[in-house]
């Protein structure tokens, strides 16, 4: 007799854990998977290019281990995907531990009619409570309480977390597997591809997981730069999805918060300096409302005491992250310089593609035209068109002569980023 449809029986699960140099951590990760109330049929650790005892520790904890040298999370996931025969695939990072019922909750979401979901991540409680870990606690609390539930309700998530996710195996295979044709941000790319293909994705707030977060500002900002660049590259690759009303609303609100609010605050501050404190009235009213709302959401997730201790670091991080994202959008979409690798706590060197000559000269021409139009209006150049033209030429020459930073060689096997941005 044929097996009943998947929804009429317990959905089978295989867990894939891509890992690179996670010695001292990966054993606990595997054990957290084996303690699940919904027992997985297989637990596979894909140890990629490890120079430590990751593979040995994972095997000792009870996982099947595959050793690879892909230097690619997506390629490792595809290696594991080819080996499984279950209904669902759960993926977790090699430094992320699951609550005992995390898989059970994600499976329930899939059984309710979704094709993919992700859990809610928080910093691992064993980590030192550095400023960056405290800041990340607030970020994740707000994502768990507001951002992801709202996006899930609208049917268009920006990204299903790569730290802990669950997908129908047939859905991932139907779109060609985990995306190896993007330089960074394979979790966000997979999310957009699945939604673009009509698959239904949602968020499982009750599926808790704890991951190892950056403990220094250098690693923290390197990680944020990767996330920011990935967001910009996804927007460039999927412009048609921005026509979907829910997607347009979510992306529009994000860009307004990122650009519009930042510009409004900067303008208000400048007016305050020029015209006096009265010009800051708008900020003085809006800021406490936003701060109080954010604190209430964080406190509901973390508790009042922890929210209080984490808030100062979160405020500093929010300011830094905002400008990192603004710069990443400008660099990726305007300058055309694309991040294809990141530094991270594994010590990898950041790599940027150079600006193309065509883009450089186009931007130079635009700057020159703008300068030629603007400088005659300056009082000290009024009535001096030759001086204005000379200044415009100087601006153009300066732009054209700028050498592009970050012109590092790409590693073997990487796809040219221009092709990646055009690829679906």
UniProtKB/TrEMBL annotation:
Keywords: Glycosyltransferase, Membrane, Transferase, Transmembrane, Transmembrane helix. The keyword Transferase applies. One of its GO terms (molecular function) is glycosyltransferase activity. The chain crosses the membrane at residues 248-273, 279-300, 380-400. InterPro entries: Nucleotide-diphossugar_trans (IPR029044). Gene3D superfamilies: Spore Coat Polysaccharide Biosynthesis Protein SpsA, Chain A. SUPFAM superfamilies: Nucleotide-diphospho-sugar transferases. The keyword Transmembrane applies. Belongs to the glycosyltransferase 2 family. This is Cellulose synthase/poly-beta-1,6-N-acetylglucosamine synthase-like glycosyltransferase. It comes from Nonomuraea soli.
């Amino acid at each position: 007799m044929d097996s009943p449809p998947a929804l009429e029986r317990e959905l089978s699960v295989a867990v894939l854990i891509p890992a690179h140099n996670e010695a001292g951590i990966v054993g606990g990760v595997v054990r957290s998977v084996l303690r699940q109330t919904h027992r997985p049929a297989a637990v596979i650790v894909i140890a990629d290019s490890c120079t430590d005892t990751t593979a040995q520790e994972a095997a000792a904890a009870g996982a099947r281990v595959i050793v690879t040298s892909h230097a690619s999370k997506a390629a490792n996931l595809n290696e594991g995907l080819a080996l499984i025969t279950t209904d669902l695939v759960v993926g977790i990072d090699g430094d992320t531990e699951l609550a005992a019922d995390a898989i059970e909750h994600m499976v329930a979401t899939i059984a309710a009619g979704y094709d993919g979901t992700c859990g809610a991540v928080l910093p691992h409680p064993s980590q030192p409570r550095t400023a960056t870990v405290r800041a990340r606690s607030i970020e994740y609390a707000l994502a768990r309480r507001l951002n992801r539930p709202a996006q899930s309700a609208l049917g268009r998530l920006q990204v299903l977390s790569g730290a802990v996710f669950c997908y129908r195996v047939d859905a991932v295979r139907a779109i060609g597997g985990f995306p190896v044709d993007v330089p960074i941000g394979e979790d966000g790319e997979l999310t957009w591809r699945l939604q673009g293909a009509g698959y239904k994705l949602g968020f499982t707030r009750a599926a808790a997981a704890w991951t190892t977060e950056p403990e220094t500002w250098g690693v923290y900002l390197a990680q944020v730069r990767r996330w920011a660049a990935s967001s910009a590259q996804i927007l460039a690759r999927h412009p048609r999805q921005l026509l979907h009303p829910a997607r347009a609303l979510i992306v529009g609100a994000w860009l307004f918060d990122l650009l519009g609010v930042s510009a409004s605050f900067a303008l208000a501050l400048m007016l305050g300096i020029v015209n006096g404190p009265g010009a800051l009235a708008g900020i003085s009213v809006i800021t406490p409302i936003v701060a109080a709302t954010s604190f209430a959401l964080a406190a509901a997730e973390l508790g009042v005491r922890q929210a209080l201790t984490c808030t100062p670091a979160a405020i500093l991080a929010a300011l830094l992250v905002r400008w990192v994202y603004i710069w990443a959008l400008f660099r990726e979409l305007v300058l055309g310089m694309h991040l294809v690798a990141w530094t991270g706590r594994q010590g990898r060197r950041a790599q940027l593609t150079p600006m193309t000559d065509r883009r450089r000269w186009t931007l130079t021409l635009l700057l020159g035209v703008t300068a030629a139009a603007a400088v005659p209006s300056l009082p000290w150049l009024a009535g001096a068109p030759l001086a204005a033209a000379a200044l415009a030429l100087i601006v153009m020459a300066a732009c054209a002569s700028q050498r592009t930073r970050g012109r590092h060689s790409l590693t073997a096997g990487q796809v040219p980023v221009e092709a990646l941005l055009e690829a679906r």
